[in-house]
Design goal:
The structure holds 2 protein chains of 2 kinds.
Chain A: E1 8-9, E2 14-19, E3 22-27, H1 29-35, E4 38-42, E5 49-50, E6 55-61, E7 65-69, E8 74-79, H2 89-92, E9 101-105, H3 117-123
Chain B: E1 6-7, H1 11-16, E2 20-24, E3 27-32, H2 36-45, E4 48-51, E5 56-61, H3 65-72, E6 84-91, E7 97-107, E8 110-115, H4 120-129, E9 136-139, E10 144-150, H5 154-159, E11 174-179, E12 182-188, E13 197-203, H6 207-217, E14 224-225, H7 228-238, H8 271-280, E15 284-291, E16 302-304, E17 310-320, E18 325-333, E19 342-347, E20 350-357
Parallel strand pairs in B: 1-3, 4-14
Antiparallel strand pairs in B: 2-3, 4-10, 5-8, 5-9, 6-7, 7-8, 10-13, 11-12, 12-13, 15-18, 15-20, 16-17, 16-19, 17-18, 19-20
Helix pairs in contact in B: 2-7
Classes of the chains: A alpha+beta, B alpha+beta.
Chain lengths: ~130, ~375
C-alpha cells in the first residue's frame, strides 16, 4: 500500500498536500483499491466555500458510490477537470494526476485534525 | 451480535489470489480479484471462473417429487426430460416471489433445485411446508461447491478435462460424469452472464482439485478468477433478475417479466390470483433503461416522468463495462414501460434523462 510520508490524511481516506495556504486533496491508494474501478467523478463545487467534513463531490465506482468530504474548511479554488473524461486516473495515480480539488484554507488550525502517515497506517490496519 | 460468516471450501485460495472478500448472503465471498471492469471483459472476451459455492442445492426424490415441484414452482417441470434444467420462480401466496431457481431433472424420480444463497433456509422451510405428500427432501448446500466457467473460451478450457463432448451439451441441459479425475461431477450448460459456458457442481472434497485443473486448462486462454462484482454487471447487461433487487416477496412474476416461466397450463401456489392478474393486466412492469445523460443509476433511486411525477424506482443499476454507459432496471408504472419512452432518474437531486430499452442490453 502506497502511503507517502509527505502527505496528511483523513479518516475518510483522503489525502491532503499543504502548500502555504493552498491544499490539494485526493483519495488514498487504499480508498481507490476499496472502491474498485472509478468510472465517474462528480465535483460541482468550484468557487464554493464549504465547511470541514461537508460534502464537496461524489466518486462513483462500478459497484459503489461514495461522497467526498472537505478535509478542511475553505473555498474550492480549483477542480481537476481531467477526471471528467479519464476518471480511471484516480485508480492509476491517486496521489498525482488523480488529485481532485484545491482548497484555499480558511482556518489553518484545522491542519491539526489531520492524520500523519503513521496514524493513517494504523487506521487501515497496515 | 457479530455475524458469523460461512466460508466456501476455497476461501484460502481466493485470499491467496488477492481477492477482496465481502459478506454476501451470510458467506464470505470474493467480490473482486483485481478489477471489476477487467474481470467483466475477461468473461465477455475469453474465459473466467467464478466460485459461486454459496448457492443452495436441494435434492427431491421419489415418485411424487415432480408433484411437489409442480405445486411450488411457476414453470412446468413435466416438460423436462432427463438431463435438462429449467428456470422458474417459487411464487408465494400473496402475489410475490419466494425465490427464483433452477430445476434439474436427473431422472423421473430425482430432481435438484438450485436456489439463492440468501434464501436457502427460507426456501427449504417454504417447500417443506408444502410437502404433504412425503417427498424425500435433502439439503446438500453445505456439501457441494459450484464453479461457473463462462465466456467464449469456456468449452475449450473445460473440454481438456473430460471425455464428455461438451459441445453436444445444449443450453440448459447437463450431464453427470467424470471431470478432472473426479466422479459424479455435474456439468451444466447454464450460467448467469450471457457469455456462454458451464456451471460445474462438485463435492467439496474435490473442489480444490477441480478449481486448480480448470485454472491450468484455461491458462492458454488467459483464464482469470472473477468476483461477484463482475457477476452482477454481466447479468445486468443481459437483463437477468437478481433476487432481493429486481424480484422479491412483493413483486409478481408477471410484473417482473417472468411470464415466460409462469405457466397457467397447471395449478401452482397462488396461480388463480396470478392468472387473474394476467387477465386484468399489471399496473407496473420491470423495464430496462439506459442513461442518456451522464450518470449511474443505483438501487433505490426514484424514477420520474418528464413532468416530475414519480413513476417508479430503480432496482438494479451500474455502469455497463461493455457499453460504457449507465444502465439499470426498475419497476415503472404503465404506460411508461414501452421501449424508447423517456424516463428521468433522480440522482443526488438531479433529474437525469434515460430511455426505456428492450432487454437484454447486450444484443
Amino acid at each position: 500500500m502506497n502511503i507517502p510520508e509527505s502527505l496528511k490524511y483523513t479518516k475518510d481516506h483522503e489525502w491532503v498536500k499543504v502548500d502555504g495556504n493552498s491544499v490539494t486533496v485526493g483519495i488514498t491508494d487504499f480508498a481507490q483499491k476499496e472502491l474498485g474501478d472509478i468510472v465517474f467523478v462528480e465535483i460541482e463545487t468550484e468557487g464554493e466555500e464549504i465547511e470541514q467534513n461537508e460534502v464537496f463531490g461524489t466518486v462513483e465506482a462500478v459497484k459503489t458510490v461514495s461522497d467526498l468530504f472537505m478535509p478542511l474548511s475553505g473555498t474550492v479554488s480549483e477542480i481537476n477537470n481531467d477526471l471528467e473524461d479519464t476518471p480511471e486516473v484516480v485508480n492509476e495515480d491517486p496521489y498525482g494526476n488523480g488529485w481532485m480539488i484545491k482548497i484555499e484554507m480558511s482556518d489553518s488550525s484545522q491542519l491539526e485534525d489531520l492524520l500523519s502517515m503513521e496514524d493513517y497506517k494504523a487506521l487501515i490496519g497496515e | 451480535m457479530e455475524e458469523i460468516l460461512k466460508k466456501v471450501a476455497l476461501n484460502d485460495i481466493h485470499k491467496k489470489l488477492g481477492a477482496k472478500m465481502v459478506s454476501f448472503a451470510g458467506y464470505n465471498m470474493p467480490v473482486r480479484y483485481f478489477s471489476d471492469i477487467e474481470e467483466h471483459k475477461t468473461v465477455r472476451e475469453g474465459v473466467g471462473i467464478f466460485d459461486v459455492s454459496h448457492m443452495g442445492e436441494f435434492f427431491l426424490k421419489g415418485p411424487k417429487a415432480i408433484d411437489l415441484i409442480q405445486k411450488v414452482t411457476s414453470n412446468d417441470a413435466t416438460k423436462l426430460v432427463d438431463g435438462q434444467a429449467q428456470y422458474a420462480c417459487l411464487p408465494n401466496d400473496r402475489g410475490g416471489i419466494v425465490d427464483d431457481l433452477l430445476v434439474y431433472r436427473i431422472n423421473a424420480e430425482e430432481f435438484m433445485l438450485v436456489v439463492n444463497a440468501s434464501n436457502i433456509e427460507k426456501d427449504w422451510n417454504w417447500i417443506s411446508s408444502h410437502n404433504d405428500i412425503d417427498v424425500d427432501m435433502e439439503n446438500i448446500s453445505d456439501t457441494l461447491s459450484l464453479f461457473a466457467v463462462q465466456g467464449p473460451k469456456a468449452i475449450a478450457t473445460l473440454q481438456k478435462l473430460t471425455d464428455t463432448n461438451l459441445s453436444e451439451v445444449k443450453f440448459y441441459t447437463f450431464t453427470v460424469g467424470e471431470f478432472a479425475g473426479c466422479q459424479n461431477v455435474v456439468m451444466s450448460a447454464t450460467g448467469y452472464t450471457g457469455a456462454g459456458g458451464f456451471e460445474i457442481y462438485v463435492n467439496n472434497e474435490d473442489a480444490a482439485k477441480v478449481w486448480d485443473a480448470i485454472m491450468e486448462a484455461g491458462e492458454e486462454f488467459g483464464i482469470k478468477p472473477i468476483g461477484l462484482g463482475a457477476r452482477d454487471t454481466l447479468r445486468l447487461e443481459m437483463g437477468y433478475c437478481l433476487y432481493g433487487n429486481d424480484i422479491d416477496d412483493t413483486t409478481s412474476p408477471l410484473e417482473a417479466g417472468l411470464g415466460w416461466v409462469t405457466k397457467f397450463t397447471k395449478e401452482f401456489i397462488n396461480s388463480p390470483n396470478l392468472l387473474k392478474q394476467k387477465e386484468e393486466g399489471v399496473t407496473r412492469r420491470l423495464v430496462g433503461f439506459k442513461m442518456i445523460d451522464k450518470g449511474i443509476p443505483r438501487n433505490g433511486y426514484e424514477i420520474e416522468d418528464a413532468d416530475g411525477n414519480a413513476i417508479g424506482r430503480v432496482t438494479s443499476g451500474s455502469m455497463s463495462p461493455s457499453l460504457g454507459l449507465g444502465i439499470g432496471m426498475g419497476y415503472v408504472n404503465r404506460p411508461h414501460t414501452k421501449p424508447a419512452t423517456e424516463l428521468y432518474i433522480v440522482v443526488r437531486n438531479k433529474k437525469l434523462k434515460a430511455v426505456v430499452e428492450k432487454l437484454p442490453f447486450l444484443k
